Amino acid sequence: MATETGKNVILLPQTNQLIGLYSIIRDQATKRGDFVFYSDRIIRLLVEEGLNQLPVEETLIKCHGGHEYKGSRFLGKICGVSIVRAGESMEMGLRDCCRSVRIGKILIQRDEETALPKLFYEKLPEDISERYVFLLDPMLATGGSAMMATEVLISRGVDASRILFLNLLASPEGIAAFHEKYPEVKIITGGIDEKLDEDKYIVPGLGDFGDRYYCI
Ligand code: PRP
Ligand code: URA
Ligand code: MG
């Protein structure tokens, strides 16, 4: 079971397996092939935990021979929204779990000098306000990018309590800033690190996720 470390902050269980996966992707000597493979394994765990958080209703299933099974089924519809570029790395993990899931994109880039986010583009499912939204971005550093994306979602009619923000690593500063503004959004993360450095990178962190996943 994932632990709820604060209201609406859900941390994946820190099992030996998970720590092993993070040990690989945090290692600066890890090459891109392994970085992608092991990040994808963590992303799958985050998506599975996101699905665990959705509301369900009881349903009675008729099994072989007329036996009954008290089961459950998900109430509602979901979609994914990735914060381009690094968030796109999480789309496949969501597709692997949710057949033909709709996916929107928001292009936000952090200014390399100031670390402030800039919004360039958005394309979201028409009926997004009727859906639970899995907001996808591997890194929650200052929280600026995630807050800007959440603002876009809310402006499109999404209720904050229906947003689940999935990330691989979060900083305490980022969680605090994000929840100060959007306390109803569930943050689902695989790791909460120590702090941010002077360049607003997560410490110990893993460096620039997008560069390591797509470029280096
Ligand atoms: C990174 C990361 C987040 C953001 C986190 O993206 O993927 O989107 O920074 O930082 P914040 O919480 O301080 O806003 P970046 O803008 O560097 O671009 P990329 O996705 O293209 O790698
Ligand atoms: N973006 C990253 O990719 N890594 C960080 O530590 C902060 C922002
Ligand atoms: Mg990004």
From TrEMBL:
InterPro entries: PRTase-like, PRTase_dom. Pathway: Pyrimidine metabolism; UMP biosynthesis via salvage pathway; UMP from uracil: step 1/1. This is uracil phosphoribosyltransferase. One of its GO terms (molecular function) is uracil phosphoribosyltransferase activity. Belongs to the UPRTase family. It comes from the Eukaryota. Its EC number is 2.4.2.9. Keywords: Allosteric enzyme, Glycosyltransferase, GTP-binding, Nucleotide-binding, Transferase. GO terms for biological process: pyrimidine-containing compound salvage. Its cofactor is Mg(2+). The keyword Glycosyltransferase applies. Residues 13-214 form the Phosphoribosyltransferase domain. The lineage of its organism: Eukaryota, Fungi, Dikarya, Ascomycota, Saccharomycotina. The keyword Ligase does not apply. It is an enzyme of class 2 (transferase).
